[in-house]
Specification:
Immunoglobulin-like, mainly beta, single chain, 471 residues, signal, 24 strands, DNRLRE domain-containing protein, CBM96
């Protein structure tokens, strides 16, 4: 890594010396950055398709693909990304955790990103260089969805060119007030609806088609500024370099194998104190549900570890004010008991649900999504702020609320993870999964048994069943 950055600095110095640039103009290093932003290191969002002419935020918000980036601190922002599409448009929604909300009451297109704002970058060709297939949408937080707080640019060989095209960017916020110094806000949101026709396309992308995408959240925490700093997905995203953007694939991945099953294995933690199948809740674990203390939520919440808890929560919702109730779940299964040189036929993740948040009649069903990551993590130190980002979302399943305690080990819930197991197995890696939701409803938390439950409840521990065939 040091060698790479040294090369970047030397290359930048040489290019500048050979081709003096006007002050404040960027120097582009596409060849080096393209190597740095190798395809296998970049995350992917697999976008679910919804019915034609559907109102995605009204009807399918909780089933949109989920991704995230950033951190929760007094000076940094975290954001959830939700993405969906139908035959007419692409929908991208950002929910940003931010304790101080500021917007420009006299906006100009050139200064939109100097306040709380979002930049959405798309390349409809999936290319690695700016071209006419590259698009840059900017929307600043405001008290109303006025066009004055939006701008759009199209790529060219000479950089970004401001244009006019039709799209919506609807802001929302939760907190004390916009443009005040109390530092007691909770966050804001921006929902982009971009017609495919506005991108010069005659129709929606076909299933399996891949674009490039990146998102940058801009932050300002005081009236006089300056901007605090950007958070982005992927973290290495560069506005002028699509090679460092992530991937946006239309449709969810699938996996099938017609090989006869010749063997199978069930993988789960054998005893409470075993190191096998580590798992952890991050965020609003069951023992840390929806804390209200301002110091705690901005300074401690994102850095708490619950890796040894006997249970866990998965929760999200559309009201960004309640982000201290949100929780994700991480689990790693070793695949060493699957013989080498086999073909994965199918794989199933099973969790046991024993409860949910909310009183009787308040909870609703949740589409709990499964995502993968290739990064390792430690059960004793993983937190919301240091947990690995997802590599891609692979699907999900509905989890119904429980009206009464079902008795132990709980109600078995299942997810098809064949696609993820086949990829991890082919790479010779363990299976690293994340569970999270894009829920809209309040009281969406669903409670499950973890690997750390006592041996009396071993049947309730998370398990992975893998079936294989011969090549």
């Amino acid at each position: 890594m040091v060698t790479l950055f040294a090369a970047l600095i030397l290359q930048a110095s040489w290019v500048t010396a050979q081709n003096p640039q006007p002050q404040n103009q960027p120097v582009y290093l596409p060849l080096i950055l393209r190597d740095f932003c190798a395809e296998e290191t970049l995350p992917r969002i697999n976008v679910p398709e919804f019915p034609a002419n559907s109102n995605i935020p009204e009807e399918y918000f909780g089933q949109t693909a989920i991704a995230w980036f950033g951190q929760v601190t007094p000076s940094k922002n975290y954001a959830d990304i939700r993405v969906g599409y139908n035959s007419n448009l692409l929908y991208v929604y950002l929910a940003v955790f931010d304790r101080s909300l500021w917007y420009d009451m006299s906006p100009s297109a050139e200064r939109l990103t100097e306040w709380d704002a979002v930049t959405l970058l798309l390349d409809t060709s999936g290319g690695t260089f700016l071209s006419t297939s590259s698009w840059r949408f900017v929307a600043q937080l405001s008290s109303d969805p006025s066009p004055a707080y939006r701008a759009v640019y199209r790529g060219s060989t000479s950089g970004w060119q401001k244009i006019t095209t039709s799209f919506q960017a609807v802001p929302g916020w939760r907190g004390n007030a916009l443009n005040d110094d109390t530092d007691s806000d909770r966050g804001w949101a921006m929902g982009f609806s971009i017609p495919f026709s506005s991108l010069g396309l005659a129709s929606a992308p076909t299933s399996g088609q891949t674009w490039r995408m990146a998102v940058i959240v801009h932050d300002r925490d005081s009236r006089i500024g300056p901007p605090v700093g950007d958070q982005s997905w992927p973290p290495i995203a560069a506005t002028h370099n699509p090679a460092c953007w992530g991937f946006l694939t239309f449709g969810l991945p699938s996996y099938t194998s017609n090989r006869p099953v010749v063997g199978s294995v069930t993988i789960r933690r054998p005893t409470q104190n075993s190191p096998l199948v580590p798992d952890a809740d991050v965020g609003a674990a069951i023992e840390n549900q929806c804390p209200g203390d301002e110091y705690h939520i901005w300074n401690e919440w994102g850095n708490r570890n619950y890796g040894k808890a006997p249970d866990f929560n998965v929760q999200n919702q559309s009201d960004v004010a309640d982000w201290p109730c949100f929780a994700k779940y991480y689990i790693t299964f070793p695949l060493s008991d699957v013989p080498r040189h086999k073909i994965i036929v199918s794989a199933t993740l099973t969790l046991h649900q024993f409860g949910n948040s909310g009183g009787p009649g308040q909870a609703r069903s949740s589409w709990i999504q499964v995502l993968t990551t290739r990064q390792d993590w430690g059960e004793n130190n993983i937190t919301w702020n240091n947990a690995p980002l997802a590599d891609e979302n692979i699907g999900g399943n509905w989890v119904e609320p429980l009206t009464t305690h079902p008795g132990w080990p709980g109600v078995a819930r299942h997810w098809d993870v064949s696609y993820a197991v086949a990829k991890a197995y082919a790479r010779g890696e363990p299976l690293r999964l994340i569970l999270y939701s894009a829920d809209s409803n309040y009281h969406s938390g669903k409670y499950f048994v973890s690997s750390d439950t006592g041996d009396w409840n071993a049947e309730g521990r998370p398990r992975l069943e893998v079936r294989w065939g011969e090549p």
